[in-house]
Amino acid sequence: MTTMNIQQIFEKYYQPGTPLYNSVWSHSKLVAEKALKLAQVHPELNIDSDFVYEAAMLHDIGVYLTHAPSIYCTGEEPYIRHGIIGAELLRNEGYPKHALVCERHTGTGLTVDDIISQNLPLPHRDMCPISLEEKLVCFADKFYSKSTPDQEKPFDKVRKSVAKYGDASLHRFDEMATLFL
Asked: Which CATH number fits the domain 6-180, given the four candidates 1.20.140, 1.10.3210, 1.10.150, 1.10.3470?
């Protein structure tokens, strides 16, 4: 397996020095740092920290193609699709495991029932994190937004935000919290 050059991949899709680059890169670094700290607290879980770092740094690689002007995204796709867009990009780069993190980190993951009942513009399949590494990146991501990337959200605020998406989403979050906190 070749060593991944995260910055090279990132810069293939993002122009360094732009507000979008700075926003997504900063957000991704904070998510990666939080995920690594949580992994260190739980050596018994045998988490692949190298993979977690790489996946956390690239989990939002697809946002640039979405329409979210408040975070400098001027694409045409709905923001909810950034995970599957990123997954496609990383599969094309030769990183299928990293692609799964992109695809499965939205919210606390999305079930096919979530997608159908909310009429989301996504493929009709389960996209919930499965591996510990996928769950860890998904969990760490909930504590940072791209609109205020330097501020970690308090646990209670994150939990309240997740609860807006229903009991199943909150249950998945609570399961991840039990694993990693």
From this structure: 1.10.3210
